[in-house]
Amino acid sequence: MLAKKLKKDRSDNVTKETSNDMYNEKKSSRSEELRKEARQLKRELLAAKQRKEETVTNLEKKETETKASNPAVSEYLEERKKYTEIRKRKQKGSSREEQTLALLDRFKNKLSSAITEAPEKDAEELVNDDDDKGWMSHVLHFDDQTRKVKDANVQDEDTFEIYDPRNPVNKRRREESKKKMREKRERQ
């Protein structure tokens, strides 16, 4: 009888373990399904966002094509487009660094092209331009002013002695120089 009870207990433990395994499998399969669904939703959101951006850009292109007949309006639309692009660029995340580096590269290219194009343009054309690119091609020249470097070991006419008149050594020197001057005057 004892052997039968032990056998039953073992079988009960086995059935409990299999039910726990099945429960864990259901849990893991459920979590996998939720992950897949989350990925799917992210893809759909990104696709919807891209479609929205494409439609906005298409509408802007159509507007610029229809209103470009008047030069003042076209200038206004260009500036508006420039500032809307700047507003779009301010996204956070890993793409922010890429955008910043792309802006830096564009600026470097613009600067190098302005430097190479500068000798070709006339001064009158640069004055009439309102695009603020004149500063990019400007070359800064300084007058060469060689500075005199004074060496402490070399005695020049510009070198001055610095001494304290209260110092006893300096007092003795002054007295000696006064005596020498008196002797020179007496000789003459």
From TrEMBL:
The gene is Cwc27_0. This is CWC27 protein. It comes from the Eukaryota. Coiled coil: none annotated. Residues 9-66, 173-188 have a biased composition (Basic and acidic residues). Residues 1-79, 145-188 are annotated as: Disordered.
